[in-house]
Amino acid sequence: CQRAAFAFDQGSDNVLAIFDKWVEIRKEIEERELEKALNPPEEEEENDDEDPEEKEPEASAEQLVYEALSEFHEDWGKRGLGLVKMIGELGVYQGARDSEFTKEGVGRTLFPSGDMFCGEYKDNKRHGLGTYYWAAKGMMYTGRWRNNVRDGVGRMIFPDGGRYLGAWSGNKRNGEGRYTYPDGSSYNGAWIDDVKNGFGTYTFVDGSQYIGSYVDGEFVSGEWRMAGGATRYFGAFQNDKPVGSGVFVFKHGKEGSYRQAGVYKNGVWQPFGPVLGIHTEPALRLVLQGKEHALKFTDECGGYSMEQLVVVSNFGPFIEWMRRVNATTSMIVESLFVSAVKFHEDDKSKVLEVRLRLVAKDANGNRIRNTQAITLRAAATRLMVVLSDGQKSVGLLVKAPCAALGSNEQFALPAVRMGSDGSFYSDFTRLVQPALRLSIDRESTTQVVKPLLCAPQVDSREEDVRAYVQHIHPDAMSTLQERLDEVCGGNSLMSIVGVRLSEIADKTTDALTLLAARRVEALIAADKLGLATVEDQRPPTCLLYTSPSPRDS
């Protein structure tokens, strides 16, 4: 029901004359503004005895164009100024249309600003393959479009000479892609909202590389491969410099290869001991409770390398566990081994989980038996999205594995990662935010469960829950599950369901999900968690005319 841009014939109403005049007027305005900037007018001294003359406001661009085309005023009638304004915003189009005069198929649009798009249209929107050129910025994008935004695989050339080829979503780099910088260096890897996030490789101009995990644009862990590749360093990084435990490997991949383990302190390399052969059993020296320990893998955890042991030693939860142990006197560690490691499926330099086996005694010298198996995992945030139509409140859950039930049919709150800018990152938010028109971030959510240890005897991970509450129209509520099924697209790895808060206990045995549902339900009932985290959503409105911005960047 929406009639959008370009639904007029460029051969009628003197469209080309209007367009040409827009180009001319825009150039005159730019020259006038430049002259003002170079030669600002002198301020006139105020005279109290004289009445100050009111200065007339300068005419807008569309008024100047309209007045310059006075010969067409009689033909246009009252709609003249609106027609001029519309062409100034939307430009002229040449290409395929359907029977209702809507752009459908391949076409070309030229804007008065000098911008140009050539490609596929669907329902008056850029949709499919196409090229957009931004004249003022000197940028050009060629690739996939969806509903007027860059979405899919595409290539962007930036004004400074930088180039990107890869995946796009919502007009931003999202997914796998390669960015080549003006100086010739490049990054090839994962992106989230125009920022390097995930596994990737940064190649410097001299050929050296950072290969591993990137978080919020910073290289945090992995391999530093020197130019030539024969010397490599494995460890953690901060501000593009190695920090903490690490290992140098020399003559990598060649006969006689050797390594040296150590630690970076204040930017200075401090080796643990002499260089060792590459096939020596992996072992790292750690100081715990004032006593030196050798951190090793257990026999059943064999096959891991020294480089992987270094990654484990720099795992945040492991460092935090060591800090807690150093601060206590109720437990004395006698020996320490790594019995299991879970690495990220796509990024082997990123640890997800570590299981330790240790022998420990209490202050009286008695052996502590329940410390033999300790699981270390990073702290996590769960997100509870609650949608309400005024009659009922529904929480969104995702499919999660459940060893207790022996199946994958349990549902629980999704885990998310909060970036430094307050945005949430996860497959869940990536799918539901655009589909349900939600705006989820730190400011629009409320913490309803503070960080707690869900299983302190076997798991070190603390989890908290943040709630996002959104009004939706009853019509939207009636089709909610259909939309959720549509965005998941039959993906067996991600299934989302909407469940009434009062019925969540029937869907899950996950303790944190049950606790959060009870908390949110009680807060809503007590009017302490308003159903207005953000503005109300209304159903789509049938519009007669919409003016999209053709110059989005």
Structural features, described:
By secondary structure, this protein is an alpha+beta fold. It has 10 helices and 31 strands. The strands form 3 sheets. The chain has a 17-stranded antiparallel sheet that branches. Strands 24, 25, 26, 27, 28, 29, 30 and 31 form an 8-stranded mixed sheet that branches. The longest helix has 24 residues, at about 15-40. The chain is globular and about 100 Å long. About 25% of the residues are buried. Mean pLDDT is about 80; it is low at about 1-10, about 400-410 and about 540-553.
Topology of this structure?
Elements: H1 15-38, H2 61-68, H3 73-76, H4 80-90, E1 92-97, E2 103-110, E3 116-122, E4 125-134, E5 139-146, E6 149-157, E7 163-169, E8 172-180, E9 186-192, E10 195-203, E11 209-215, E12 218-225, E13 232-238, E14 241-250, E15 258-265, E16 268-271, E17 276-277, E18 284-288, E19 291-297, H5 306-313, H6 316-326, E20 332-343, E21 351-361, E22 367-368, E23 374-377, E24 380-388, E25 393-402, E26 407-412, E27 415-418, E28 424-425, H7 427-436, E29 446-453, E30 462-471, H8 474-478, H9 480-488, E31 496-500, H10 511-525
Parallel strand pairs: 19-20, 24-30
Antiparallel strand pairs: 1-2, 2-3, 3-4, 4-5, 5-6, 6-7, 7-8, 8-9, 9-10, 10-11, 11-12, 12-13, 13-14, 14-15, 15-16, 15-17, 18-19, 20-21, 21-22, 21-23, 24-25, 24-27, 25-26, 25-31, 27-28, 29-30
Helix pairs in contact: 1-2, 2-4, 7-9
Weakly predicted, low-confidence segments: 1-11, 402-408, 540-553
How much is the radius of gyration in Å?
31 Å
The gross shape turns out to be globular
Secondary-structure-based class equals alpha+beta
**Which percent range describes the beta-strand content?**
35-45%
The pLDDT mean sits at: 79
Please report the number of helical segments: 10
Give the helix proportion (percent range): 10-25%
Largest sheet data: 17 strands, antiparallel
Strand segment tally: 31
What's the end-to-end separation, in Å?
Answer: 27 Å
